[in-house]
Amino acid sequence: MRPNAVPLATALCLSIASSCGGPDAGTPCRPRSSYPDRDGDGHGDPSAHRFDCSPPEGFSPLPDDCDDARADAHPGAPEIVGDGRDEDCDGSERCYEDRDLDGRRSEAVVPSEDPSCDGAGEASVGEPLDCDDLDPEMGDVETCGDGGDDDCDGLVDFADPDCGGPEAEVREDGTVTLGGEPFFPLGVVFGWYGERGIDWDRTFRELTDAGANFLMHIDDGASDICGGLLPGAREAGIKVGIGSIETWFWNLLDEAGDCAVPIDPPVYSDAFLESVLSCARYDPNFVAWFNRDEPIWNYHPTCAPSRHMISEADVEEAWRTLDAQEPRRLVWINYATANRQRSRDAYVRDTSRYAAYADVLGFDLYPYPYHRPGTFGYERCVEPPPAERADWCWEHVVDDPEPTVTGEVARLHVSQIGGGKPYWVILQGYRDMPPADSLFMAYEAIVGGVGGIVFAGHQWDPGGPATWQSATKPTIRELSSLGPALVAPQVALDLGDTPGVAYLVKDLGDRLAILAVNRSPSPVEAVFDLDAAGPAEDSVDVRFEDRRVAIEGGIFRDDFAPYSRHVYEVLVRDER
After folding, report:
1. Residue range 463-489: average pLDDT?
2. What pLDDT, in 10s, does the model give residues 498-548?
3. What CATH class is the domain 179-485?
4. Is 564 in a helix, a strand, or coil?
5. CA separation (Å) from 203 to 187, 212, 249, 432, 477?
6. Domain ranges in the chain?
7. Superfamily for the 501-571 domain
8. pLDDT at 444 over 70
């Protein structure tokens, strides 16, 4: 090279000043490569370059950008796991790990040459999070009742809305439906107690053996709702209602009869509700809350009349509290068929004021042994029982003192109290009640229009266990075997009017079921005119009695013993 010769690149810079840029354009410099930096992240596109004394605007001296269209992709950039892009330009992706190969990602991260993260054991950021990456059964669907959070949403079993909930409704005709299917509850109030509280195994064994489908549980604070009641109910296929102990025993004063003892403490504390709903908010087997038992009557006779009625505002508050938890769950309130004013009009008025605060209404009756021996009647005010039970009479509630109280009271409530709301009633299941009386009492209630029956007393009375085995259990078993007849639509057919005999006709499609009772103390030959029904056979089947009765000229006749029931089924023409 000649002395003072200028290198070619420098000569180029000198000759094309704009190419070297900067305030010293035209001044000799050592040219360097510049790379386009379109995204302005300080890193250039290595696929194109130019020579400059210093990089002009929009260029970078670094040829290491793997995506010059994204400012967040360059060496040293934070790598976003599983998004299908190589942010840090290291030639690989970081994917979430899917060890159990169920398509759900864990929090663990593994390197991958596949930017889509769809290789074996890999998952992208778009996949749902797996809360147990060693169990492929943990997926998108909650398996209700298995004790785990299967869909990884932090909600276990029936605390998860995926489990559906009770879906309880009341149709316009007053029929309760669960999941769209008609439901007639048959069962008991209270389970069976053992040495350490309620024996749930025995409780559901007894109910299943009886063919029951419902248990009303009044919680004493010591029973295991989440670990005993609800799992046992699900396994047995038993629907349950739940009430706090305060809903049932609000009216028990202390032993001294202190009339200053509060009669209406809060019945559902936040702690109690949370303890139940933590495991049962969406349990379809948990179908009802209990609002109050006997809100217009107090056991103790010495206190002022105001002490014998729960305030309407307090009942409304409980109703709103319960309804807010899960509107698809029913709220039930139960009346005592007595009041201090000994007035039927006062009874209807007082009970009616509570009807707005429940979906289902009820009444309880425990008439046996009847105050007049030898009759299926009830304790009459004109011949009062002991003074401490002076208000245990029903003469002011019903019109006819001789036939059984159950049907009369049922008709009164269904027709005058509640505006067509369904009635689930609590009937006597203790005091060594005879089997025939138990059976008749239940049919009386059904013919009177009730939509559910639960029995009480098998726990609190010495005669309760024997009554359960000999009377209550067989009664539930027979009613359960009626099946569709209990929930079928009622048919308004006039079958005649035999004195003392009441009946209910149900539509079974191609057949009619006729539930009939003799409410009189004398034997009766009943006459039933089926002509309007259009019988399609020459006899009717008498359920539970292994016999048939002939139909002649559209009429059949049958004998009834005093206070007895018959159930008939007959095939009818479609055009009826």
Report:
1. 94
2. 999 999 999 999 999 999 999 988 999 999 999 999 999 999 999 999 999
3. alpha beta
4. strand
5. 11, 11, 22, 20, 16
6. 1-77, 179-485, 501-571
7. Golgi alpha-mannosidase II (2.60.40.1180)
8. yes
